[in-house]
Amino acid sequence: MSALTCRGLSRSFGALRAVDDVDLTVAPGARHALIGPNGAGKSTLFRLLTGRMRADAGTVGLGEHDVTSLSEVRRCRLGMSQTLQHSSLFASLTAAETVALAARRHDGTRIVPWPRRQPRVGTRSAELLGLVGLADRAGDTVPSLSHGERKQLEVALALACSPSVLLLDEPAAGMSPAESARLLAVLADLPSEVTVLFVEHDLDLVFDLADRVTVLHLGRVLLSGTPDEVRASDAVREAYLGTSRREELFTS
Ligand SMILES: Nc1ncnc2c1ncn2[C@@H]1O[C@H](COP(=O)(O)OP(=O)(O)OP(=O)(O)O)[C@@H](O)[C@H]1O
Ligand SMILES: [Mg+2]
């Protein structure tokens, strides 16, 4: 049984076929990367998978469930969680309060206008912050966090609903090499039962983390294979960067 699948998934914007007849199979526990040049359709495919956007055609499966006709919220309840390419956090909250809000929302604890002592939520928030390497930043407000730490916080928010499948759209965007390395460690340490599908332009991070890579080009799957198969592909090199020179695409 796959963790996440889609078959024949398509979405057009006017004459542009942004996602064009895409089949994808993500195995349970995989660290599956989705790569491709700007405008390849990666974020649109994510929106179709999560239900944020309706597909023109095709099906989406989450474990044993056909979720094609389900809303984003219902897919989330069935175990699909995401971070977005562009997202926003509440500036006035601390890291712990931000995660607590998501944890309360998920477990049905009443959200109150003024924080009270809610030990169960507090424990869960601390656990989530620990998972993403932010245990020592719990009391700091969002604006005081670095860009990389905010991205780590977004991963904690996505984990708050205990997902079986986590979709991350460019988690390392705008990060310094040090921040990117820290995020890689966080993602590598996520519980193995959480399946991860991630879009990323940082190919070093992709090839360090992924056990499977799907390359999207002009809305279509160009290749889906092991990292080594993708590295070795002339078609990927030429389509991805418009170059056949291996050293311009892969540093290792
Ligand atoms: N809501 C929309 N309306 C019209 N066109 C859109 C919309 N969303 C995406 N597109 C177009 O669809 C194509 C695919 O966009 P998408 O954002 O999925 O690409 P991407 O692979 O995520 O790119 P990037 O790497 O730059 O994030 C692009 O040509 C984009 O301009
Ligand atoms: Mg995108």
Helix content bin = 25-40%
Strand order of the largest sheet: 6-7-8-3-9-10
Shape estimate: globular
- Total discrete domains: 2
Instruction: Supply the CATH architecture of the largest domain.
Output: 3-Layer(aba) Sandwich
Runs in which pLDDT lies below 50 for 5 or more consecutive residues are none
CATH class of the largest domain: Alpha Beta
- What is the CA-based Rg, rounded? 18 Å
Query: What fold name goes in the CATH topology slot of the largest domain?
Result: Rossmann fold
Major sheet attributes: 6 strands, mixed
CATH superfamily of the largest domain: P-loop containing nucleotide triphosphate hydrolases
Amino- and carboxy-terminal Cα gap = 33 Å
Pattern of helices and strands: EEEHEEHEHHHEHEHEEHHH
Cofactors, ions, other ligands: adenosine-5'-triphosphate, magnesium ion
Beta percentage is 15-25%
Class of secondary structure makeup: alpha/beta
How many β-strand stretches? 10
Describe it.
The chain is α/β, with parallel strands linked by helices. The chain has 2 domains: 1-79 and 163-252, P-loop containing nucleotide triphosphate hydrolases (Rossmann fold), CATH 3.40.50; 87-162, no CATH class. 36% of the residues lie in helices and 24% in strands. It has 10 helices and 10 strands. It has helices at 42-50, 72-77, 95-107, 119-131, 147-159, 177-188, 203-209, 227-232, 234-241, 246-249; strands spanning 4-13, 16-26, 31-35, 57-62, 65-66, 80-83, 165-169, 195-199, 212-217, 220-225. The strands form 2 sheets. Strands 6-7-8-3-9-10 form a 6-stranded mixed sheet, with helices on both faces. Helix 3 (95-107) runs parallel beside helix 5 and helix 5 (147-159) runs parallel beside helix 6. The protein is globular, with a radius of gyration of 18 Å. The two termini are 33 Å apart. The relative contact order is 0.17. The mean pLDDT is 87. The protein binds adenosine-5'-triphosphate and magnesium ion. Adenosine-5'-triphosphate is lined by residues 13, 16, 18, 36, 38-44, 85.
